[in-house]
């Protein structure tokens, strides 16, 4: 009888220990579940924001009457890729003159097609690996993003410089007029009021100077500034580039880009892809800037 009572007590102690252990572990497990639910909600929210950003980019292309290139497998026949119509003019129209010249330099560098190429050169064919084409497309998106960031930065710095110069010129003019006699000062001020001023920076040859300024400005970036301008500021933008590239070049079932397929295409189609990618990156910079004022995006 004593042994049975002892065994019962041991069982009771064991059960009590199990209950205490469960009570101690339950809040931790509950906390883990809450954290997991919060993570899932955050992922859903991020996906929704990315969808909104993508739709805004799609709207910008629609406003240009330029359809985005569909999945490449739908544009290919017997390993031959052709994208028609080219829509080169529409895709180039979104850029300023100085930015467009830099974009044309990029096209010439990555596909070997000069800006003054003939129609025959445009329709000449070449072979390219699909994986390399996908990387070229993604890199061109980042290049368009970089150009938009760099050109905006360049415009801002130039405006600040012009404002500073204008203030200095105005201050020097006032100091000069204060040194003149009263009669001569009135005559000078009267003469100045009759002269039509020419806006600063709009003289002949200004466009050529702008082209050189932008090129030199971009080439003068140090590695840190270059990385900061080329890197997407938000995780949503970086993920959107990845999703869009995989949707365009990925396999129908897995979405993973194929690596071993070599396709034949024309330089005109390659130019169309690069121009679209650069425009996508430029639009992405604008949309990211806009969305971030409404919803705080995650820093990349």
Would you write up a description of this structure?
InterPro entries: At3g17800-like (IPR038925), DUF760 (IPR008479). This is UV-B-induced protein At3g17800, chloroplastic-like. Pfam families: DUF760 (PF05542). It comes from Gossypium aridum (American cotton). There is one protein chain. The protein is mainly α and 300 residues long. The protein has one domain. The protein is built from ten helices and four strands; from the N terminus they run αββαααβαααααβα. The protein has helices at residues 2-63, 88-92, 97-111, 119-122, 130-178, 182-194, 206-219, 223-230, 235-249, 267-294, and strands at 76-77, 80-81, 125-129, 262-266. It has a four-stranded mixed beta sheet. A hairpin with a 2-residue loop joins strand 1 and strand 2 (80-81). The longest helix is centred in the N-terminal third of the chain and has 62 residues, at 2-63. Mean pLDDT is 77; it is low at 1-6 and 191-201.
Give a brief outline of the structure.
The protein is mainly alpha-helical and 300 residues long. It contains ten helices and four strands.
């Amino acid at each position: 009888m004593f042994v049975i009572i002892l065994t019962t007590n041991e069982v009771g102690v064991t059960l009590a220990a199990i209950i205490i252990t469960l009570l101690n572990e339950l809040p931790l497990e509950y906390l883990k579940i809450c954290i997991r639910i919060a993570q899932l909600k955050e992922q859903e929210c991020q996906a929704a924001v990315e969808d909104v950003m993508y739709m805004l980019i799609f709207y910008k292309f629609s406003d240009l009457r330029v359809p985005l290139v569909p999945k490449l497998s739908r544009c290919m026949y017997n390993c031959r890729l052709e994208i028609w119509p080219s829509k080169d003019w529409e895709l180039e129209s979104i850029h300023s003159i100085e930015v467009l010249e830099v974009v044309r330099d990029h096209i010439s560098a990555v596909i070997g097609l000069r800006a003054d190429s003939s129609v025959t050169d445009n329709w000449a064919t070449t072979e390219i690996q699909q994986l390399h084409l996908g990387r070229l497309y993604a890199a061109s998106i980042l290049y368009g993003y970089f150009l938009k960031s760099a050109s905006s930065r360049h415009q801002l710095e130039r405006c600040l410089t012009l404002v500073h110069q204008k203030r200095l010129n105005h201050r020097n003019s006032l100091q000069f007029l204060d040194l003149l006699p009263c009669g001569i000062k009135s005559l000078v001020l009267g003469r100045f009021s009759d002269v039509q001023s020419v806006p600063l920076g709009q003289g002949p040859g200004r466009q050529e100077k702008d082209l050189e300024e932008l090129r030199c400005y971009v080439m003068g970036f140090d590695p840190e500034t270059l990385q900061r301008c080329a890197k997407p500021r938000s995780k949503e933008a970086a993920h959107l580039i990845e999703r869009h590239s995989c949707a365009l070049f990925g396999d129908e079932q897995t979405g993973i880009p194929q690596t071993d397929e070599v396709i034949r295409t024309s330089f005109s189609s390659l130019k169309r892809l690069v121009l679209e990618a650069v425009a996508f990156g430029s639009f992405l910079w604008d949309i990211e800037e806009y969305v971030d004022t409404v919803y705080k995006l995650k820093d990349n």
